[in-house]
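Reopening this one. Same input as before:
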Amino acid sequence: MVGVVAIANMWMAFALSVKRLHDRARTGWWLVWQLLILCLAVFLVVVAVAVPREQGAVWYALTGAAGFAAFVISVWLFVQIGFLRGTGGPNRFSPDPLGAMTSDAKL
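Same output, byte for byte:
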């Protein structure tokens, strides 16, 4: 039961993040890039631990580079999704959700 709730929560977080990136006129593929680089970093850690000690330094350097790239993309996404205002006016993904709000009521 907990697994189903966790998967549903991850799906909602992903969908909301994509919508927020679209509001910023960015593509949702940035989230996929972040996930792929994180998986690459984890894979490189496993390889670095498994190879002989003489070859470990190269693999740890690659792991550090992938980890740094994942960190940079994560901070960039955190700022884009969490702090910056959406683009003014319509963009290629949707119209401005805050713009041109009119009321149909007549007073």
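So the earlier flakiness isn't reproducible anymore. For the record, DSSP finds three helices and no strands in the chain.
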